[in-house]
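dude i think i finally got it to work??
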Amino acid sequence: MVVSGENAPMDSLQKFIPVTFILFASLTGFGFGYSIINGPANATVLAGSEARFNCTVSQGWQIIIWLLNGNAVLTTIHLGGAVVTLDRFTQQNYTSGETFTSELIIHNVQQSDSGKIECSIQLGIPNSYAFLSVQVNGSLFIKDHNSTVRKNETIEIVCEALGWAPAPNMTWMINNSFVDKSRYVTNHSQGSNDLHNEVSTLTLTPLANETLTCLAYIEALPKPQNATVTLIVQESLAENGNQEDSTRTRTIILAVTLSVGFLLLIIIIFIIIYCCLKNKESTYQKELRKVSTKKTNDGSEKTRRSSGNENSGYSPEDPVHTKQMPRIAPLPPMASNFHRPEEDLEVSSASEVPYKVHQNRVSPRRPTDYPVNPRKIRNMTLV
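look at this
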C-alpha cells in the first residue's frame, strides 16, 4: 500500500502504527527481537539540494519509521515495502549479511526542513536521531568604489552579504593574504524570511597596486564565496592632475578637429551647390542672349534691306575737273524707287551714260571732257 501527496491523511498512519506496535510486541515474546545498530548522523546542506540519512537495524526487523520534527514522513515495512507520505521523502534499501539499512532521501530541501530527524523501530526501543541544518547561500558584492586611488590616501572598501542563513562569517584578503580583523568592521542586520545581512568595511592606505578580496563563509558551502576588486595607485596628485589635463586636452583637440572638419564639409557642400546653380543660371542666360542676338540680327537685316548700305569706297570728284565741265541741261526725273542689283548699278566705262545715285534716286551724271577715274565713282547699293 502506497499513499502519496503533501496532504496525506495522518490519521490512518497513526491508527496503523499502534496496531503494528501491538503485533510486533507480541512477536517479541516468541523471540523475534531486533535493535538499531547505527542511527542517522547530523547533516548540514544548502537549500535546494538533497539531504540523506541512514538507519541500520539487525536481522528480524519488521518496521522502520522516519520522523521529521516529530512527524512521520516515511514508513518501511519488512513485507510490504515503503509507505510514502510526502513526495519529497524517498528511501533506498541496502542489505548486508544480517543487517538492513534504510536511507532516507529528502529532495529539494527547504529552510523549514531544519530540525530533528528520527529513526524508530518501535517495540519500546529508543529512537535514534540526528539534526538537519538547512542553510541559504546569499549574494556577495563590493559596493561602488573608485578603482584608481592616490598614493598614501586612506580609503574604505565596503562589502555586502545579503540574504544569508545563518549570518555568514566575513573576512578580507589583500594580495592573497588574510587581513587582520582589526582592520575591518562587520555589521549585522536581520532581513526578511529569517535571512541575515552582513556589511563589512575595510580601511586601508595603499602604497602600490593591490588586489582586495572579500570572502563570506557558511558551513554548507564547500568553499567561501568571494568578491574581488583591484586598486590602481597613482604616484601623486600632480601626476593625476597632469593625466587629467592631458586627457582633457586630447578631448578638446578631438572635439575641435571634428567641429572644423564638419564645418569644412558643410562649406564644401554649399560651394558645390552654388556652382551648380551658377552654372545652370549662366547656361540659361547664354540661351537668352542667343535668342536676343538672333532677334537683333534679324531686325538689323530687315532694316538694311529697307534702307540700303552706303559704299564706303566712294570719294568725291576732283573739283578741278568739275569746274571745267560745261553745264548741261538736267535730264528728266526718274522713278524714286529703283531697285537693281548692285553689279548693274556700277559704271565701269566713260562711254556708258553715267548716273549718280543719291539716297534712293538715280540721276544722270554730267558729261566731261576728261576721262573719269573709276576709283572716284560712288556706288550706292539698294536692297
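The radius of gyration is 64 Å.
im so relieved honestly
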